[in-house]
Amino acid sequence: MGNDSDTRVEPLRKPRKCPECGRPSTRENYPFCSDRCRQIDLSRWLTGSYAIPVAEDESKPGGEEQ
Ligand SMILES: [Zn+2]
User: Signal peptide position in this chain (predicted)?
Assistant: First the structure.
């Protein structure tokens, strides 16, 4: 009777905020809150890989040119 130490139940996995909108993530779409946010992140990642401007330095450290 009256086990104060057992009244506090901590979750096994701490809730993580969705990197897209900041809402608590769900178990199905972890670490995102929904499938929509997951798709957003995925599409951004894919398009980002193409959109990233390649900064080519003429002076490469090490001189690894032919
Ligand atoms: Zn979200």
Answer: none
